[in-house]
């Protein structure tokens, strides 16, 4: 079989073979959005598309706006030139309205919400919501988008099936881009650690992620809990391939990459039914528990003890849950399949 042609390199240092070019804007450097952008870029480049991060580069077949931007002039020029502008829309910032935060954080959150709304209302020719939860949230707050819209979940690379008869390390993982330790999240973290240790399912809990300066991780940590901070993706992937399960800690998550990454590694996920979690973790692939409280007011759930019960259900059928989690990620979140849906939305 003939080998595919090697990808050429454009002036941006990016490989390309065809004349069709898409602009990703703005370029996202870190966190879940950054990792998804990089994964999507790799697939599109491998399929022969050209990629730029410059709104003024021409010819240009489409623009994919990741959340929002202040570069109105660039978007105006694209609109004037008849270039489709597709917005990948995140959730709405809300924590700052129900939990004390520094004034700067409050203003930044409100500004970001405003930018998201302006791009959606004024420039986007199509909107991609990261989940049904995100779509419905935006529709409740600001009404349906005036442009065509679709829901496309995030995706990850799917490796070959790895049959795991049992976890290798008695560890509960918490993997978040931002570890927000509001009263509800702190209560969930402590309860999961205590309940799963009491059931002898885990020996320790390891927390990965950045903690905003107005939260204090030291106020939450207990015996057997470790905070590793922000680390390389490879280190997290190594733990995901060995741990017992992963706790989804974010409340009302739009479409958490870390949950999909865990499932792709065959790592069962435990968490509460808020945000898009139940859209990602289907029956038998982990444990998604009802939230007995008002999550929008950051009320700790009244059923914290169910974390132990949910963890025990996972442990009793760990191999089956692990396999189903992997198969679910493979069927629904393979980045090559997700990229195909993005190409369709972008008209490429």
Describe this structure in words.
The structure is a single chain. The chain is of the alpha/beta class and 348 residues long. It folds into two domains: 8-155 and 334-346, Glycogen Phosphorylase B (Rossmann fold, 3-Layer(aba) Sandwich), CATH 3.40.50; 171-332, Rossmann fold (3-Layer(aba) Sandwich), CATH 3.40.50. Helices cover 38% and strands 18% of the residues. The chain contains eleven helices and 14 strands. It has helices spanning 31-46, 72-80, 103-123, 132-142, 183-198, 233-240, 257-264, 277-280, 306-316, 318-332, 335-346, and strands at residues 8-9, 15-16, 21-25, 50-52, 62-66, 85-89, 126-129, 149-151, 171-178, 204-210, 225-229, 245-248, 269-272, 286-289. It has a six-stranded parallel sheet, sandwiched between helices. Strands 11-10-9-12-13-14 form a six-stranded parallel sheet, sandwiched between helices. Strands 1-2 form a two-stranded antiparallel sheet. Helix 1 crosses helix 11 (335-346). The two termini are 27 Å apart. The model is unreliable at 1-18 (pLDDT under 50).
What's the layout of helices and strands?
Elements: E1 8-9, E2 15-16, E3 21-25, H1 31-46, E4 50-52, E5 62-66, H2 72-80, E6 85-89, H3 103-123, E7 126-129, H4 132-142, E8 149-151, E9 171-178, H5 183-198, E10 204-210, E11 225-229, H6 233-240, E12 245-248, H7 257-264, E13 269-272, H8 277-280, E14 286-289, H9 306-316, H10 318-332, H11 335-346
Parallel strand pairs: 3-4, 3-5, 5-6, 6-7, 7-8, 9-10, 9-12, 10-11, 12-13, 13-14
Antiparallel strand pairs: 1-2
Helix pairs in contact: 1-11, 5-9, 7-10
Task: Please identify the oligomeric state.
Answer: single chain
Largest sheet: spatial strand order: 4-3-5-6-7-8
Average the pLDDT over all residues and give the rounded result.
Answer: 93
The CATH architecture of the largest domain comes to: 3-Layer(aba) Sandwich
The helical percent reads 25-40%
The parts where pLDDT drops under 50 for at least 5 residues are 1-18
**SSE topology string:** EEEHEEHEHEHEEHEEHEHEHEHHH
CATH class of the largest domain, anyone?
Alpha Beta
Write down the overall geometry: globular
The total number of structural domains is 2
């Amino acid at each position: 079989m003939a080998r595919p042609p090697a990808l050429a390199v454009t002036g941006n240092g990016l490989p390309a073979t065809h004349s069709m070019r898409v602009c990703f804007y703005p370029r996202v450097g870190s966190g879940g959005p950054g990792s998804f952008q990089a994964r999507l870029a790799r697939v599109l480049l491998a399929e022969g598309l050209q990629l730029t991060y410059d709104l003024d580069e021409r010819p240009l077949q489409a623009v994919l706006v990741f959340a929002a931007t202040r570069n109105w002039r660039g978007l105006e020029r694209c609109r004037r030139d008849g270039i489709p502008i597709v917005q990948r829309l995140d959730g709405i910032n809300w924590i700052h309205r129900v939990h004390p935060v520094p004034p700067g954080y409050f203003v930044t959150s409100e500004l970001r919400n405003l930018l998201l709304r302006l791009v959606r209302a004024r420039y986007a020719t199509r909107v991609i919501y990261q989940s049904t939860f995100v779509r419905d949230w935006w529709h409740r707050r600001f009404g349906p988008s005036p442009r065509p819209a679709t829901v496309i979940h995030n995706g990850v690379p799917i490796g070959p099936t790895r049959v795991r008869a049992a976890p290798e390390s008695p560890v509960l993982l918490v993997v978040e881009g931002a570890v927000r330790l509001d009263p509800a999240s702190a209560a969930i973290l402590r309860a999961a650690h205590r309940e799963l240790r009491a059931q002898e399912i885990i020996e320790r809990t390891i927390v990965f992620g950045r903690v905003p300066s107005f939260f204090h991780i030291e106020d939450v940590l207990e015996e057997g809990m470790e905070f590793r901070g922000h680390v390389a993706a490879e280190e997290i992937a190594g733990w995901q391939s060995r741990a017992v399960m992963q706790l989804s800690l974010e409340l009302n998550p739009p479409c958490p990459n870390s949950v999909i990454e865990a499932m792709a590694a065959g790592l069962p996920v435990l968490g509460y039914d808020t945000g898009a979690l139940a859209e990602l973790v289907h029956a038998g692939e982990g444990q998604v528990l009802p939230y007995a409280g008002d999550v929008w007011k950051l009320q700790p759930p009244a059923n914290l003890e169910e974390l132990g019960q949910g963890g025990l259900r996972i442990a009793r059928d760990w191999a089956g849950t692990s396999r189903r989690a992997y198969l679910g990620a493979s069927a629904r979140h393979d980045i090559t399949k997700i990229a195909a849906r993005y190409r369709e939305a972008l008209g490429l």
